[in-house]
Write a structure and sequence with these properties.
globular, five-stranded mixed β-sheet, 9 helices, six-stranded mixed β-sheet
């Protein structure tokens, strides 16, 4: 479906974001690694990338709120979603064992997802780093002894690292949901069956309940509601909702109804629902 495309991600070759790109777009792609999630829409808007891939929530760690704000404040459209099963491995140089490891590096979300495993090893210091794959790469490049990284088996194979232990995440069924971003949607009305909306509400009792009641009334299945702080209004929140539908006309009916009640509403994307195993 896709050929010779450029995809911006947070992270580097071998990262979980990279795995999503390979699974979603196929083999003909170029990875453009970014240090910050906020750089992803900039790369697309600036014409350096065709698409962006951004993690949005994890089944253990929950939602990544800053990434919701990045999407809302950009001109990007959510074009699709992808659920990746995460299997975290503890990687090191050869001849290391868990007893010899003093420091472990990885992305903050990966560390969070493996906290319970490290409760049994209080001698190990957990250190946050910008990326799972990059953490492993630096261990290999610098021949760092007594050091390990949390990353995937793909990364272990890529840098010829020792897997001390695999599947170390707290919940063995561990999934991360990713959004596929672009400036313009390629989805047809016939393909889409899911949408994400952003809106703000008047700060009064029952306002959220009133809006949400319209979803069931229009025959739509609300799958997620996420509150996001409004930066310039302390203790005020905006909302992002995901919902699925079997009839595009029902979705259009909902938009017509709630647009009359909300001053600030934004369609973040209309896309095809993804499944996870």
């Amino acid at each position: 479906m896709f050929r010779n495309i450029r995809v911006a991600i947070q992270g580097f070759d071998g990262s979980y974001h990279h795995e999503v790109v390979k699974n979603y777009f196929g083999v003909n792609h170029t990875i453009l690694g970014c240090n910050r999630f906020s750089d992803i829409p900039k790369m697309v808007a600036g014409g350096k990338a065709d698409f962006g891939v951004i993690a949005i929530e994890n089944s253990i760690g929950g939602s990544i709120l800053p990434n919701y704000s990045i999407i809302v404040n950009s001109n990007m459209q959510i074009l699709g979603e992808y659920y990746l099963k995460i299997n975290h491995c503890l990687l090191s140089l050869e001849k290391e064992e868990i007893s010899t490891i003093k420091e472990v590096y990885s992305h903050p979300m990966a560390i969070l997802q493996c906290e319970k495993f490290f409760e049994n090893y209080p001698h190990i210091k957990l250190i946050e780093h910008i990326d799972t794959a990059y953490s492993a790469k630096k261990i290999k490049e610098n021949s760092k002894k007594h050091t390990a990284a949390i990353a995937s088996k793909t990364v272990a194979d890529m840098y010829d690292l020792n897997i001390i232990e695999s599947n170390i995440q707290t919940m063995k069924k561990n999934f991360t949901r990713f959004f596929i971003l672009g400036e313009k949607s390629y989805n047809s009305v016939e393909e889409v069956n899911k949408a994400s909306l952003y809106f703000q509400l008047a700060h009064r009792t029952g306002s959220l309940e009133g809006v949400l009641s319209h979803f069931s009334a229009c025959g739509l299945n609300l799958t997620k509601i996420q509150s996001v702080p409004i930066m310039d209004k302390i203790w005020h929140y905006s909302f992002i909702v995901d919902f699925i539908f079997d009839d595009y006309l029902k979705y259009q009916k909902l938009l017509k109804i709630i647009s009359k009640e909300l001053d600030n509403i934004k369609i973040l994307g209309e896309y095809k629902r993804a499944n996870y195993d």
